[in-house]
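Hi Q.,

Before the meeting this afternoon, I wanted you to have the NAP prediction in hand. No need to reply - just skim if you have a minute. The sequence and ligand are here:
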Amino acid sequence: MTPDSVDPRRVPYCVLPGGRIPRIGMGTFGSDLYGPEEVSAAVAGALRFGYRLFDCASVYGNEDRIGQVFDEAFSAGVVKREEIFVISKVWNDMHGRGDVLLSLARSLKDLRLDYVDAYLVHWPFPNYHAPGCDGDARNPDSVPFSADSYLEVWRQMEKIRDMGLARYIGMSNMTVSKMKAVLPHCRIMPALVEMELHPSFQQTGLFRYCVERNIQPIGYSPLGSPNRPGRDRSPGDVVDTELPEVEAAARAHGIHPALVCLKWAVQRGQIPIPFSVHEKNYRANLCAIIEDPLTDAEMLAIAKADKNCRLIKGQVFLWEGAGGWEDLWD
Ligand SMILES: NC(=O)c1ccc[n+]([C@@H]2O[C@H](COP(=O)([O-])OP(=O)(O)OC[C@H]3O[C@@H](n4cnc5c(N)ncnc54)[C@H](OP(=O)(O)O)[C@@H]3O)[C@@H](O)[C@H]2O)c1
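Predicted structure with the ligand bound:
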């Protein structure tokens, strides 16, 4: 810890079955813009500053560098293993029989951990694209969602949980109808579901569906992902930090609109995982959620600002014969 860092005991936690998770984390996807060195340096700085939750994934291509940072932090006494909550995810090309365990084994080796705190199914399809591809890229082997295929992946997730290699298992990029199709057949329920959540895309139906079942929502792209890759940009996308309701709250609190998005997220009940390689920003993000909350009126105004504007449309995962990106989301 540095003298100006945040005491992690001041950061609130959400309760999970048999455990807990910090109410804010740091994202680690460099958006094809920041390489492993920059992202892992930010993770090192964030650990020292007081972050205890890190959202990783094999496809982000930086778990080995982040693992070195964890290892150094444990050796230097910055933090103990059990004090951090590490999420990783199985990528779409590792859905085959036996592949989930292989993928997790690789992530554990890279992250230099004996277990992850949570392991998620990154996308509910085995469809994948080349790293850094553009928005028109399609893989001819792509297929639509199949509950049976998903459940085969989930059986493997349950096994790694049984083996103690992941304390929790979870899902990502789901919809209510996909969850309705698979949840009745899960032996172990997901503890966490990661989904895109920001003021202009609140996914109220999916959010409530999860909360009512004690499944903790994690909100990705909580600031509206201003630096997302070109393949995830479309004409008409809303800029969250320019929403009048967000700007008004920012003015009232004398803060950047990005910090309003994070206060709103935590007060609503999801766990935001903002990304930044800039110390000033990731420090401000952690501080924002422990001080000066939004008023009920500001929360209500932002609740009404929803524009149903999905930014990460996932069109690169479409299969032959599919219509538009909406087909991925039922
Ligand atoms: N499960 C999934 O499929 C999925 C999909 C997408 C993302 N994710 C996860 O969610 C994380 C976050 O999502 P994201 O990176 O797409 O979007 P985001 O967190 O909404 O936005 C990140 C961008 O916001 C800027 N920023 C951060 N803090 C700021 C501040 N205080 N003031 C002004 N600007 C600020 C950063 O710029 P600077 O770096 O210049 O500060 C960064 O480029 C990812 O890293 C990843 O871990 C998961």
